[in-house]
Specification:
Elements lengths: L11 H6 L1 H4 L7 H20 L12 H18 L6 E2 L16 H8 L21 H11 L3 E5 L2 H13 L3 E5 L5 E2 L3 E2 H8 L2 E5 L7 H7 L4 E7 L15 H8 L5 E7 L17 H6 L4 E5 L10 E5 L1 H9 L2 H5 L3 H13 L3 H7 L1 H7 L2 H19 L3 E11 L9 E11 L4 H9 L5 E2 L1 E3 L2 E4 L9 H12 L3 H4 L3
Parallel strand pairs: 1-13, 3-6, 3-7, 7-8, 8-9
Antiparallel strand pairs: 2-10, 4-5, 9-10, 11-12, 12-15, 14-15
Helix pairs in contact: 3-4, 5-14, 6-14, 7-8, 7-12, 15-16, 17-19, 18-19
């Protein structure tokens, strides 16, 4: 005898024939639709056998419920992957939201890559070319480095640098700089993967040049300094400067390497973050190589860059690991477009979204917050209490952790709906909106909003909180 309810399950062909599921036939091939239908029915057989209550009784019957469930899965499959979201958090380099929003010129460069391109082909000689040279001139001009190389992220840059220069030998690092970056990746683990031997010196809060000096042995290959880009040490602290490490290492023939991470090219690019170290300053101090990210304070695509002495960078380019870590033509095209914008700081701040967001003045943000609050009041009516309040934005993405940027926030306190539930509904909007949750209110920071995103943001709030943007929102 069959289990209760199992006889009510539709056959696969019946489920595929449901109008909502059949509507996907021109976009999703029959084998894929069949596989999803089979998986859905298998899950329901298990649910029915385990005695779970069925939500189908109030949804027009099991056949109707499963037909719409299959259609929902087909839609999720079709729309899956990356989704464009509205970042209302005020965190400019939001790691979970893709860090730096790409400049328009970078997107245009990527979109124009149809056909074939001279990625590794020298058009003068007709021989094989070198992809690393496609952006090397720009990086040399902008940083003062003798040579530069691009890999897929900053962790890869550190891994390649240590593998090429220090495998089997010691690298001296301050205990206060053995940081963990996003996704539980830790500097000691990256060093171990490179084959370098970690030699810790100093204490968590205070490390001096003489601590490095006492650790030197015949096995030492390099001194490594790591920028604490995602946290700050306050109070009773000390760290050796790059200049001190260079003075210590140079007479002994040792390398000084700097994992900068955050990627500001020079002070004029990030005037709101005066304490953030830059690539040009580090190279000016005499270090052999600096590694940094392309998608943080540089404001471009995800990649890692090694810039420094020609012999060091070429050793990295010759290492077998480079082939596994190198970037493709799309990343190189987007990086080149970003770097071209950086040839003049004023142009960079105007054309690179991350930089103009960081540089937005507090007065402008206050005006935009008041205007946005007015639109939300009109759209939401009694569904929410809307006001503005002073607040702070963050650079985010492992950059300037101790620096807060003055802003004006729009506070939306839903009526009869918890802030967490309202935030969940906003994330399910089209496009999804990600806002801050503070107690029973949602906070919207205009710093990370493009003006073109304000209208869809208002509509999303109206849909999530029960207002009517179509009839009440002005303009």
């Amino acid at each position: 005898m069959s289990d209760p309810g199992l006889r009510d399950l539709p056959a696969v062909h019946e489920l595929l024939a449901h109008p909502a599921a059949a509507a996907w036939a021109d976009r999703v091939a029959a084998p894929v639709r069949t596989r999803l239908a089979q998986e859905l029915l298998a899950e329901w057989r298990q649910r029915l056998r385990s005695g779970e209550p069925s939500p189908a009784a109030d949804a027009g019957g099991l056949h109707e419920y499963l037909g719409r469930a299959l259609a929902s899965r087909l839609e999720a499959l079709w729309r899956g992957g990356l989704r464009r979201v509205i970042n209302a958090t005020g965190v400019v380099l939001h790691t979970n939201l893709g860090r730096a929003p790409l400049p328009a010129a970078a997107l245009e460069s990527a979109a124009g890559l149809s056909g074939y391109w001279s990625l590794e082909f020298d058009l003068v000689s007709g021989e094989r070319g070198d992809r690393s040279e496609l952006v090397a001139d720009l990086l040399r001009a902008l940083t003062g480095a003798e040579e530069a190389l691009v890999v897929n992220n900053n962790a890869a840059a550190v891994l390649l640098l240590l593998s090429a220069l220090a495998a089997g030998r010691e690298v001296v690092v301050s205990r206060g700089e053995l940081v963990e970056i996003g996704g539980s990746f830790r500097v000691p683990e990256v060093m171990a993967a490179s084959g370098a031997v970690l030699r810790e010196v100093g204490t968590t809060n205070r490390t001096y040049a003489q601590d490095y000096e006492r650790a030197l042995t015949a096995a030492t290959a390099a001194l490594l300094k790591v920028h604490r880009s995602n946290f700050a040490l306050m109070g009773f602290t000390h760290e050796a400067t790059l200049e001190e490490l260079v003075a210590l290492a140079r007479p002994r023939g040792l390398r000084v390497l700097f994992d900068l991470g955050s990627g500001a090219l020079a002070p004029e690019f990030v005037p709101g973050l005066p304490e953030e170290p830059t690539v040009s300053e580090a190279l000016g101090a005499g270090v052999d190589a600096v590694t940094f990210s392309g998608d943080k304070l540089l404001g471009g695509p995800q990649c890692g860059i090694i810039a420094g002495r020609a012999d060091v960078v070429r050793a990295c380019a010759r290492h077998p690991l480079y082939r596994a870590l190198r970037v493709d033509k799309v990343t190189l095209a987007m990086l080149a477009a970003t770097l071209r914008a950086c040839l003049h700081p004023d142009r960079a701040r105007a054309e690179i979204p991350a930089l103009w967001m960081l540089a937005r003045p507090a007065e402008e943000l206050a005006r935009r917050a008041e205007a946005l609050a007015g639109r939300l009041r009109a759209a939401l009516g009694p569904a929410a209490d809307v006001a503005t309040q002073p607040g702070a934005s963050l650079a985010g993405g492992g950059s300037a952790p101790a620096r807060e940027l003055a802003t004006t926030l729009v506070r939306v306190r839903p009526a009869g709906l918890g802030a967490a539930e309202a935030a969940r509904r906003l994330r399910r909007a089209e496009p999804p909106v990600v806002a801050r949750v503070a107690g029973e209110a949602l906070l919207v920071d205009p710093r990370t909003l493009d003006p073109a995103e304000e209208e869809p943001l208002v509509r999303a709030f109206a849909a999530a909180l029960g207002g009517d943007a179509a009839t009440r929102a002005p303009g």
